[in-house]
């Protein structure tokens, strides 16, 4: 019972019987017993319902769930042995008769149910279905998940198969709690049989250094002998090679390559190095043993560190690979002013965030998001664009975009992280100007396009959509044997609907391209966009049709057509002719992965209306003061063109230079803002090319661009008064900042802010708190392995301190100790009503496994009990019983009809003698009552009143055998009843007695 205290109400049952004794006994003993029995049962049922009674059932079923450790600390070969052990023990020892069940949960940094508990054989393989984080081990999460997965109607046991290495959670505390709930725990330790474990604990370099100043580099190595190996052999030194590589400035240099013998214990390998130029440098150290089998895990045999050398300022200029010398004059001007410029073509882009750290400013010089021609197309990946944005927002570097026909929205940068980092939106949002384009995609979805081809075609359509502005148009027409309008030509602002329709594309049927091209042409022809473009993609041979006439009609309406041939089976000749007649480009790709880059490149055609050009020039005007424009002549030269944009709606955006045309919108020529802890600048015209060619001879040209570069660059103040130290502590990185002023006094009550970027562009943002005079501390999560780049701003307005932290080895390989005692303590826990767990041996032969006495499926736990609430059933029964009780009090029960019915069923006449006997018994009872009344009245009455009463009684008792009609017999319905006649006689006697008294008084 959930609420047993309601049973106190049973004390009212005796009160019920006491009260009913006086009120119900007049109806007879059996009727009184029936009424009280019903009411007592009714009260009992109501009290049980209030107490929420439950039905408890016990059974001997057992459910066993195996917890398999899949973290990286379990070698692959040992994991295969674990799978074999779990499968064999489950299928051998599970008892089907009491309906035992078995399940599997795998875990690493998180846990997942591989096989839910079920009463059948275990089909488990080394190729697991669930995905988990293998960089960590969270046994606590696995225990909690297993507890939740157990069925309620069976005894429960968990079998943990692990090496005991725990990086997250508190498994022992959780195991104690779930054991108290009745769950048994067995343990199967996974031991390592390597001779030893070699690791590089860390490589230590100064976070900051000076140019051409020697400093020490320390590599800390550790050799720990194996726990389960020949100790004499394990004490021998391990020969191997240590190698240290320095990376920076686009070069890699091997600074150490040496053969050493590593003795058991910890050894510090030290060497000296110096850096000739400024920048951000990475040191990678690795140790490789000469013999295999001497090291348990090779994942922890390497480590990295970072060193930053302050310089006068470095600039990374990214240009179009087809025009590598486009900004030669700008580069020469910056280098004349003691700035180091690195020119990076678009086909040799950076690949890691660390590649950007040597530079204080990144300039995108009239480079499109995708560049190249039919021979090869390169494009900025989403990850690279995110790196550029994070490098500015969180690490303080500058980001600048120079205008041109391949920049801003015209270069396909709309709806990207680059647009988010800039003070301008790359799309026109003013309704008075309608520079829109229309893009029609004609995509083959025949059966030959199934698989990878249709997948990358849909990805290409999504990329093309992202390159368009909200006022541009997009349509998708597909074809197989017939034509279908997947997306009718419409505004690209409804992106969610278009993406949903694109995702539904599937491949099936034949190939008939002509109707789809014709339909796409009709849709574009009816549209009023300024620029219209069609892309046709197919991988096969289409049905014959008059493609030449159709392409001529398309070209005559000002619509361009590009074609993409996927694979060698496409009609190359036809597609090449269509592209030539349609004034577009022809692409032939062998890998479908190149399709998205082609679509991005072609989608830029519809962005051409974003370019505004005027041969006579447009005169800029000063819209506000700015540090970039200080000292410049007041009169600016006209520009002949620029890329139209829209200023962001933010108070941080400054637009010091604007253009008056076209009228009716905000036309920014120069825009700046603070983005995170960095700065970004937009110059919407070019830098001395076709639109500002006359500017190169203007006195303010060099000064303006130099001030624009220096304003946006990351500050490189020499903060020698600040010292930063870092330490990896489990899942966190602790950062300590020691601050002094120029006189050597502690700097107190500051508010340092920490910003950074971790692996996979994880954002880091924390505040440092003062813990001592001049000391500030903070920490951040470092769950992912890899480089973490940090920038610490000691105070607002001060240049940030930059450091790099490489969380190289996950905790799976940082700590190496014997976890067997902890596992044994876990197995020794005793559940209530059961026996302690067992520690099994993973490395048993099949013969040994078949002969063991104790198995995980032993039934030594308390029997499982299931509880089912039945109070609602009792409540329904109470309601039905209440109706019976009412009927019992309102209806006079008689079962004479049952005898009659029985006789009729047996087809026998009614038994008249039985009725006569009943009448005789009735008459006898009447006579007995008459005598009782006669004696009572005779004793209580006077002599004068005795005679009338006697006569009255005699008259009532002498019932004639054949009564007259005017006096109905006792058995007739008209009879007043025997008791009524008695009461009438009693009243008559009393009246006579009163009259006699009155006569005597007179």
Commentary on this structure:
With 1002 residues, this protein is of the alpha/beta class. It is built from 23 helices and 43 strands. The strands form eleven sheets. The chain has an eight-stranded mixed beta sheet with strand order 16-15-17-20-34-33-32-29, with helices on both faces. Strands 24-23-22-25-26-27 form a six-stranded mixed beta sheet, sandwiched between helices. A five-stranded mixed beta sheet has the order 4-3-2-5-6, sandwiched between helices. Helix 1 (12-24) packs antiparallel against helix 2 (29-50).
Give a quick set of tags describing it.
1002 residues; 29% strand; 6-stranded mixed sheet; alpha/beta; 23 helices; 8-stranded mixed sheet
Proportion of residues in helical segments: 25-40%
Q: Flag low-confidence runs.
A: 942-975
- Give a count of the beta strands, DSSP E runs of length 2 or more: 43
Largest sheet, in brief, is: 8 strands, mixed
End-to-end distance: 80 Å
> What is the spatial order of strands in the main beta sheet?
16-15-17-20-34-33-32-29
Helical stretch tally: 23
Class computed from helices, strands and strand pairing? alpha/beta
| Rg result | 48 Å
Overall geometric form: extended
Strand content: 25-35%
Mean pLDDT: 83
């Amino acid at each position: 019972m959930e609420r047993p205290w309601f049973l106190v109400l049973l004390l009212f049952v005796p009160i019920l019987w006491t009260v009913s004794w006086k009120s119900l006994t007049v109806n007879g003993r059996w009727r009184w017993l029936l009424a009280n029995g019903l009411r007592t049962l009714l009260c009992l049922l109501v009290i049980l319902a209030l107490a929420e009674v439950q039905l408890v059932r016990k059974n001997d079923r057992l459910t066993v769930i195996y917890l398999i450790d899949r973290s990286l600390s379990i070698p692959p070969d040992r994991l295969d042995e674990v799978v074999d052990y779990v499968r064999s023990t489950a299928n051998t020892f599970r008892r089907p008769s009491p309906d035992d069940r078995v399940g599997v949960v795998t875990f690493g940094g998180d846990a997942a149910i591989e096989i839910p508990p079920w009463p059948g054989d275990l089909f488990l393989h080394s190729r697991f279905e669930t995905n988990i984080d293998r960089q960590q081990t969270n046994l606590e999460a696995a225990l909690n998940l297993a507890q939740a997965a157990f069925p309620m109607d069976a005894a429960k046991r968990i079998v943990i198969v692990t090496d005991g290495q725990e990086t997250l959670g508190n498994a022992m505390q959780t195991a104690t709690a779930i054991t108290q709930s009745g769950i048994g725990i067995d343990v199967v330790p996974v031991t390592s049989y390597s001779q030893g474990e070699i690791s590089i604990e860390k490589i230590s370099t100064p976070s900051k250094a000076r140019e051409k100043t020697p400093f020490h580099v320390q590599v800390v190595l550790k050799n720990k002998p194996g726990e389960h190996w020949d100790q004499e052999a394990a004490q021998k030194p391990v020969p191997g090679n240590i190698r240290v590589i320095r990376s920076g400035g686009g070069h890699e240099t091997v600074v150490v390559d040496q053969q050493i013998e590593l003795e058991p214990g910890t050894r510090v390998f030290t060497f000296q190095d110096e850096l000739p130029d400024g920048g951000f440098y990475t040191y990678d150290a690795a140790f490789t043993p000469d013999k295999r089998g001497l090291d348990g895990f090779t994942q922890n045999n390497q480590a990295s560190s970072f060193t930053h050398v302050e310089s006068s300022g470095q600039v990374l200029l990214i240009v179009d690979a087809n025009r590598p010398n486009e900004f030669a004059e700008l580069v020469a001007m910056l280098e004349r002013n003691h700035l180091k410029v690195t020119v990076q073509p678009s086909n040799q882009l950076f690949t890691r965030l660390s590649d950007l750290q040597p530079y204080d400013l990144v300039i995108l010089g009239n480079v499109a998001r995708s560049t190249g021609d039919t021979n090869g197309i390169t494009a900025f990946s989403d990850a690279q664009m995110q790196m550029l944005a994070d490098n500015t927002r969180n690490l303080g570097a500058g980001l600048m975009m120079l205008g041109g026909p391949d920049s801003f929205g015209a270069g396909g940068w709309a709806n990207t992280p680059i647009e988010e980092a800039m003070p301008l939106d790359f799309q026109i949002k003013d309704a008075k100007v309608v520079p829109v384009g229309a893009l029609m995609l004609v995509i083959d979805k025949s059966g030959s396009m199934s698989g990878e081809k249709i997948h990358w075609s849909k990805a290409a359509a999504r990329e093309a959509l992202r390159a368009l502005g909200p006022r541009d148009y997009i349509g998708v027409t597909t074809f197989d044997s017939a034509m279908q309008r997947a997306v009718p030509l419409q505004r690209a602002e409804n992106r969610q609907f278009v993406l949903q329709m694109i995702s539904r594309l599937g491949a099936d049927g034949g190939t008939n391209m002509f109707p789809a091209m014709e339909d796409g042409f009709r849709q574009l022809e009816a549209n009023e966009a300024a620029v219209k473009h069609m892309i046709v993609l197919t991988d096969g041979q289409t049905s014959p049709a008059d493609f030449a006439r159709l392409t001529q009609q398309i070209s005559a309406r000002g619509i361009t057509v590009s074609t993409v041939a996927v694979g060698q089976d496409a009609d190359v000749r036809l597609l090449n002719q269509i592209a030539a007649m349609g004034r577009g480009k022809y692409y032939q790709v062998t890998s479908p992965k190149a399709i998205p880059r082609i679509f991005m490149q072609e989608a830029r055609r519809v962005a051409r209306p974003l370019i505004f050009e005027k041969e006579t020039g447009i005169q800029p005007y000063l819209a506000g003061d700015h540090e970039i424009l200080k000292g410049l002549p007041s009169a600016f030269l006209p520009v002949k063109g620029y890329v139209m944009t829209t200023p962001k709606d933010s108070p941080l955006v400054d637009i010091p230079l604007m253009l008056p045309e076209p009228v009716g919108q905000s036309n920014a020529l120069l825009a700046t803002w603070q983005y995170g802890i960095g700065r970004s600048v937009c110059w919407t015209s070019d830098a001395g090319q076709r639109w500002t060619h006359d500017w190169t001879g203007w006195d303010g040209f060099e000064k303006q661009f130099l001030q624009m570069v220096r304003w946006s660059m990351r500050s490189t103040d020499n903060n020698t008064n600040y010292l930063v130290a870092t330490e990896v502590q489990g899942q966190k990185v602790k950062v300590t900042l020691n601050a002094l002023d120029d006189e050597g006094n502690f700097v107190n009550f500051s508010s340092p802010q920490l910003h950074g970027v971790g692996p996979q562009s994880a954002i880091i943002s924390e505040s440092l708190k003062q813990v001592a005079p001049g000391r500030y501390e903070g920490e951040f999560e470092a769950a992912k392995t890899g480089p973490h780049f940090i920038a610490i701003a000691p105070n607002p307005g001060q240049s940030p301190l930059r450091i790099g932290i490489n969380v190289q080895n996950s905790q799976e390989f940082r700590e190496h100790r014997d976890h067997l005692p902890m596992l044994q303590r876990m197995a020794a826990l005793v559940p209530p009503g059961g026996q302690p767990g067992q520690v099994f041996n993973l490395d048993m032969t099949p013969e040994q496994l078949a002969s063991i006495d104790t198995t995980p499926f032993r039934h030594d736990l308390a029997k499982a009990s299931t509880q089912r609430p039945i109070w609602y059933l009792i409540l329904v029964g109470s309601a039905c019983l209440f109706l019976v009780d009412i009927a019992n009090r309102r209806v006079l029960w008689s079962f004479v009809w049952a005898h009659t019915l029985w006789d009729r069923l047996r087809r026998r006449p009614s038994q008249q003698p039985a009725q006569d006997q009943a009448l005789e018994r009735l008459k006898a009872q009447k006579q007995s009552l008459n005598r009782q009344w006669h004696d009572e009245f005779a004793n209580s009455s006077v002599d004068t009143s005795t005679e009338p009463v006697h006569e009255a009684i005699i008259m009532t008792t002498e019932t004639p055998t054949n009564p007259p009609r005017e006096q109905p017999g006792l058995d007739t319905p008209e009879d007043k009843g025997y008791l009524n006649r008695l009461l009438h006689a009693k009243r008559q006697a009393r009246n006579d007695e009163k009259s006699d008294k009155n006569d005597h008084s007179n």
